[in-house]
Every structure is written in structure tokens, then in C-alpha cells.
Amino acid sequence: MLDAKSSVIDSKVSQLWKKIWGQYSIIVIFIGIIIIASILLGRTFFDGQNFLNILRNNSILGILALGMAFVIISGNFDLSIGSMLVAVGASTIMITNFFGRVLGPDLGLLAIILGILSALICGALFGFLNGIIITKGKIPSFIVTLGFMSIYRSVSMYFMKGGGFFCDVPGFKNISNTDLFGIIPLPVIYFAVLAAICYYISKHTKFGRHVYAVGSNEKATRLSGINTDKVKILTFIIMGIMVALAVITETSRMNSINATSSGSGYEITAITAVVIGGVSLSGGKGSIVSVVFGVLLLGVISNILNIAGVDVFLINAIKGSLVILAVLLQKKEVIR
Amino acid sequence: MSEYALKMTGINKSFDGIQVLNNIEIAVKSSEIHALLGENGAGKSTLMNILGGVLLADSGIIEVDGEQVNLHTPSESQHHGIAFIHQELNVVNDLRVYENMFLGYEVHNKFGHLNAQEMIKQSQEIFNYMNIKVDPKAVVGDLDASYKQIIEIAKALLRNATIIIMDEPTTSLTHVEIDNIFKIMRTLKEKGATIIFISHKLGEVVEICDRFTVLRNGEKIVVEDVHGPNGTVSAETIARYMVGRDVLDANIFEKHDVGDVIMEVNNLCCSPYIKDVSFNIRKGEILAFTGLLGDGRTELARAIFGDMKIESGTIKVNGEKITNKSPEKAKKMKFGYLPDNRKENGIVKDLTVAENITLSTLERFQKKFKLNLKEEKSVAKQYVSSLSIKIPSLDANITSLSGGNQQKVVLAKWLHVKPDIMILSNPTQGVDVGAKKEIYGLIMQLAKSGVAVMVMTGEAQEVLKICDRVCVMYHGVIKAELSRNECCEESLMILSTGGSID
Questions:
Q1: Is B387 inside a domain boundary?
Q2: Which of A28, A37, A4 is CA-nearest to residue A289?
Q3: At B335, is the pLDDT very low, low, confident or very high (cuts 50, 70, 90)?
Q4: In this complex, do A213 and B371 lie within 8 Å of one another by their Cβ atoms?
């Protein structure tokens, strides 16, 4: 009798756990790692300022991961974003500098606004270009964006002579290097606001639903009378706009952009964060909330390894192993 | 050597509780050409897949050459000399003939160096045995379609096959090519091979086969000699066996008013699938399109719905010429389309039941940018109850439903669109008997409410149960148009196998 009762409770607990794990495994892992690290590393890790640092250091990656989430959920890839970032960044600085000179120091703010606008237009345009070639040319996104990855980087290096551009409009660097209420870095706010918007789009709009549908079964979605090409192109445009927003944050932080180093490897890190966040690489599955935690987890792990004094050269190896482990843990649940 | 090359007795098989083979028995004599016949869904493919080791029977005995065997895998089946030549041929166009024949069984020395000379020699020997001329070094892609069939047969002989299953080998071939294949089949028979021939072309069966077995609804109906004591059996007799006498059971059909012509299709061409197709359909009319594999009815549905490019011809809706450039445009023109192959074309597997129902009509729940998720749920709920769809919950994944219920969900999606012209492609594919009847009921209701319904189906019974009129298609052409009281299963079978009735 007692046994039966306890086994019922047992199965209820295990069911509840299964449900939590199934939907929020990434959050469970995240909290688990925070607790373990806090116990092992103490105040050097478990500290408000440290957490803010983690957030600031990962907000640019986070913004890119949000865009990448839409692209991957719709069943595609974008490998061009790292190089796109340099191209958009270079043009943004050039345009900002140009207007800064033409309009004079009194209208510096206007020059900056025009620069930001140009970045958004440029990013959206590049995204559109990716999308239109992929859908109308019926070429896998992997190939198209791989091509643009080389094109954007190479053309940027040509125009920048392999070096970098500096922004000479004063005030441009304030976009990123200002703290709200004197504590919260603005990039963190940007990331948070964008995450909220992306969450809303994914769950509460027609477009968001269509992104999941296209990623899950493109043919059936098209036969339901939905313009799947349009949906896919829009995901790439969103990705492009996210690149523009990321590049504004990035160039402002450094007040410059570099042809060789800026944005290098960002596409891989963004994809990694999205995958850790449980988004299926075959499309159709995943949530923005989990992607945000994927970004945070990646940031926290780097931070922990830094504090623990792990050799810099080894950090990527550990990160790589964790990616595989994270996906393996999530996969196992699906198979069962 | 036993009298029977192959004997299968008491074969039972069910999928998800639906019995597809019921105590089936088939006996094939040594060195005969034996036809296996039946309508779509009669159980032929299932039976042959069991013989090929692809599927496992629930119970039953298989004897090859008098010895009981276990066929758990395709390679075990191959080991017992059984070769299955599928309808979709497994030849690689970019490889040479001999490379195809030895694919996976390459002759090589111990360092992995391929011995092309030896393979070419052995291929040539097989072709000599078959009494045909093929250059083993030719690239397969350059050869005629019939040669692909020949290569498959040669491949089977190379692996010492004694029982060769040929699944509709002639569907995509021309007359000359078919004669060529028949010649080879006769040669092989003389040399002792046993052939199981699956075909819908009954004329061919009479021409080439020695005996035939007919299956219907998973049961063996008859086994007979083609050239029996009472003379040669006629295609009509075989058709009758295939269809059965006791066909019309329930009275699903209800009389309903048929209105004005809503759509007129003239000289529609989409080569190679559809040739010069013309028809019209009225409001509230149920017009069926039937035929056998390769008849072009699915392509016709896709072309009208904008899923395939139309080469020439016109479509007029209410007298006005229209072009559906994409399914999106077709939906706007008030067309609906329930596609065939539900898993691939119908359901979106990662979405919930409710999300699948509202997929085509999401904009109706949209205010500015925000979706009204509550309203969406309540609409989905209405459809679930009015179509009596059995679901665990509205948030359940669509894949957790049975086939029939999934189909109802896809149907509900289009009912909510409220189309004027509804195209249903194989609406009861993979659906059990109960759900089938309910879907027929829905189609009736749809027609009664004034929707023009096109039903593309391969099942003759379906045609008889629900249609007002039927177009029988054969190789992309509308062979005949019959009204409800003109059509019977025999005439449908004769017309769709390429024959004609007076």
C-alpha cells in the first residue's frame, strides 16, 4: 500500500521533472553551473559586478544569436554574419565620419543618427541579398552565405587596406560606453530589449509562426498557401538588421573597426549559442528564451574558466566539449 | 526440385491494428510467370515486401523450393535467390552498365584494385545468357528507359536469383520496350527462372503470364491459370475478381443540388504528366478523377493549385481567366487543396494540433501585429468537435494523432479557409475504415454547401461512393468521362488500364 503510494508520487515527480527538463533543460543546466561555480569559486564569481561584466561581454554575441535563431528555426544557416559585420561597420563609420565633417561639430548627433540609419539599411539589404539568392536560386543557404563570408571580408580588407577605420565624431562611442543609472551598461539593455522583441515576434505574430512552420515542413507550409520564400527572406533580413545593431554596438565600444579581426568567428559563436539553446539544426524547433540562456551559458563558462585560471589556449577546447555535451543531454531526452 | 518454387501460407500482417494481410496464400510453380493482381491497397506490396525481407510477417510460413525459410532481412531474402525489382529502379545514371551491376559487389584484388576486365566479362556473359545486346561499358544515363529494367534483371541474375519479383515493370515503357522486356522474360522462363509479375495492365497479364493470384482487401480471392480448360481468361473477368461483387455497402451518397459551372479547364498541358486536359466543374458538384499510377491526376491537382508550372491551356473561374502562380495565389482565388502524402505535404510535424488547423488562416487572428491566441484556440476547438477529431489536447503535437485524425486536421485547415473550389488528393490515404466514412460524410456536406469538390483518387470504390461525375485518366489524358449512373467498377478498371468501353 505504502509502496504503491510512494511509487505514484515517484512517477509524478519524475513526470514533472521530465516536463521541466524537456522544455527548460538549458535553464536547469545554467542554474546548476551557477550554483556549482559559486560554491567552488566564491565571491570572485558570485558577484554583481562580475555578472554585469559577463552580460556586457556577451551582449553583441547575444544580439547576433537572436537573429541566427530565426534563420536556424526556419531551417537555414547564415555563415556570412562575421564578415558582414565588418562590411557594415566600415560603411557605417565612413558615413558617420562623412556627415560629421559636412554637418560640423554642432550637428554631431544628426551625423550619428544618419550613420545608424545607414547601418540598418545596409544590414537589411545584405540580408535581403542572402535571402533572395537562396530562395530564388534554390541554393542551400550554407553555400550562399559561405560565399558571402569570403566576399564581404575580402572587399572590406581591400577598401580598408587591411587596416582599420576610426570614428572621429565625438559622442559615437557613447552608444556603447555609457552605463544606465551608472551601473547597467547600455549594450546589456540593447540585448534585453531585442530579446524581448524577438520573443514577442516568435510567439505572438503570424510571421513567427510561419518561421516555425517553414523550418518544420516547408512543402506542407507552401501548400497551405503561405509564401515560404517571403518568410525565409524575412528571416535573413532580420539577421541583417541584427548584424547592423551588433555592429553599431561593437564599433561604438572600440570607436573603430578592423578589417581582419572584427567579427572574425562570430558566425560560429552565434551558431554555437543557438545550438546550446536547444534550437534544432534541422529547423522547426527551439525558443528565443532558451537561446538567450544559451548565450548566457556560453558567457558564464568563459568567465568561470578565466577565473579558475585555465590556460587561454585551452578555453576553446573546453567550450567545444561543452557544446557537444549540452546537445547530447538534450538529444537523449528526445530519444527516450 | 520441388513443384513449387515459392509457397507462402497463412501470412498475416497488420499495421497499427489495421489488418492488411489476412491469412494470405500464394503458390508459384517453378519456371512460370505468375501475376500478382489487386487494386491499390489490396496488399500486394506488403506481401512482396515480406518476401523481399523488407517487412516481417506477423505469422505465416514461407517455403522456397520446398524448404521453409526465414526472411528477416533483404540480404537473407537475396541469399535464398529472391530478387525484388522495384518500380523505382535502383540504377545510378552516372555509372557504366557493368559498374551498376557490380555496385556493392565489386571484383577487386586484395589491395582494393578493381578488376574491370573481369566485371565486364561477367556482365557480357549474363547479357549473352539473356540473349540481348548491351554494351557493358555504356553509361546507363545514355540508355533507354527499358535498359534500366534490363540492367536490374541482369543484376538479379548475377546474384544467382531464381525468383524474380517485378513490380509494375512496364508503366514507364513504350510498346517496343515492353516487347523487349517480355522477350527477356520468356527467355528466362525457358531457362528455369520463376517470375512474379505485378501489373495493373491486365492485357499484358493475359499476354505474358501463366497463372495469376488476385488479392482484395488483404485477402486471397482466387488463383487460376491464364490459359485454363475453358479457354483464355479475359481482362474483364480478372477485373471483376479484383473489384469483387459486394462493393457498394453504405449509402453515403446523398442527392444534392448542382449549380452553375464555376471552373472551366481547357487544353491544359504539363509535359510529360498532363496532356491536353479539358473539363468543367459546377458549384456543389463532386467530380472525381481516377486512374492508375502515372495517370497524371496528382499533377493535374498540383497544376491547378499553382504548385506546378502550366505549359499551355487555360483555367477559367466564373468565366474569367485566371493563373495560379503559386499555392498562395490559389488560396487567394478561393481554391483549397488537401495534398496526397499527408506526412510529407500535409502536416507540419513540429506544430500543435491547433497551430496546424489555423496555419492557412493565421491572418484572421491578427490584430496589428499581435495574434489573438485565445481566439485561435477557440476556433480550433470548434473544428475539433465538429469533425470529431480525437486528440489528447489542442496543444498536443500533431504527430501524436492517428492517421485518420491527422487527415481531419489538415481538412479542418482548409474548411476554415472556406474555399469555393476544393481539391482533395487521395483524401482517405492511410486512413482506417471508420474515419474514411466520416471523411466521405464531410465531402458530401461540403458539396451540399455549394463548394465544387474535385476528388483525385485511385480507389474505384471511393469514386462510386461519393462522386457525381468521374473523369478516368490514363497516361495524362482524360480517357473518358462518366456520369454517376454510367460508372461501375469494371468500366473504371477497363478504362484506367487503357482499354475502352462501347
A1: yes
A2: A28
A3: very high
A4: no
Distance from CA of A210 to the nearest CA of B (A): 8
The residue in chain A having the minimum alpha-carbon distance to the alpha carbon of residue B351 is A213
A212 touching B (Cβ < 8 Å): yes
CATH of the domain at B436: 3.40.50.300
User: Does one domain contain both B268 and B325?
Assistant: yes
The domain total for chain B is 2
Per residue in A312-325, pLDDT (tens digit) is 888 888 878 877 88
- Tell me which of B182, B211, B243 is where a domain ends: B243
Give A258's strand partners: A164
Distance from CA of A104 to the nearest CA of B (A): 40
Whether B255 is covered by a domain: the verdict is: no
SS3 A224: coil
- Per-residue model confidence (pLDDT) at position B247: 40
- Pick from B327, B363, B365: CB nearest A222: B327
* pLDDT tens-digit map of B189-238: 988 899 999 887 778 888 899 999 999 888 888 888 888 888 888 877 88
Query: Hey, where are the domains in chain A?
Result: 27-329
Please check whether residue A221 touches B, CB under 8 A: yes
Instruction: Enter the pTM of the model.
Output: 0.76
pLDDT tops 80 at residue B90:
no
The string of DSSP letters for A30-77 reads HHHHHHHHHHHHGGGTS-HHHHHHHHHHHHHHHHHHHHHHHHHHTT--
Which top CATH class is A27-329? Answer: mainly alpha
Q: What digits encode the pLDDT tens for the residues A156-198?
A: 999 888 788 888 888 888 888 888 888 889 999 999 999 999 9
The 3-state secondary structure of B68-118 reads: EECCCCHHHHHHCCEEEECCCCCCCCCCEHHHHHCCCCCCECCCCCECHHH
B302 shares a domain with B160: no
Same domain, B82 and B155: yes
One domain for residues B227 and B273: no
What pLDDT is stored for residue B141 in this prediction? 84
Regarding whether B95 and B41 lie in a shared domain, the answer is yes
Same domain? For B276 and B356 the reply is: yes
A73 vs A254: CA distance, rounded Å: 32
For residues B238 and B363, membership in a common domain is answered with no
Q: Is A223 on the interface with B (CB under 8 A)?
A: yes
* Mean pLDDT, residues B296-304: 93
The per-residue pLDDT for B246 is 44
Which residues in chain B are contacts of A285 at CB distance < 8 A?
350
**Contact criterion met (CB < 8 Å) for A204 and B369:** yes
Buried b / exposed e along A127-153 (16+ C-beta atoms within 10 A) = bebbbbbbbeeeeebeebbbebbeebb
Q: Which of A138-147, B89-98, B470-479 has the lowest mean pLDDT?
A: B89-98
Q: Closest CB to B348: pick one of A205, A220, A225.
A: A220
| B274 and B386 both lie in a single domain | yes
Query: What is the predicted pLDDT for the residue at A83?
Result: 94
Q: Which of B190, B208, B243 is the last residue of a domain?
A: B243
The answer to the question of residue B412 being in a domain is yes
Tell me the per-residue pLDDT of A65-90, one tens digit each, with 9 for 90 and over: 999 999 999 999 999 999 999 999 99
Cα B284 to the center of its chain, rounded Å:
28
Give the residue numbers spanning the domain of B358: 261-496
Quick check: is B252 in a domain?
A: no
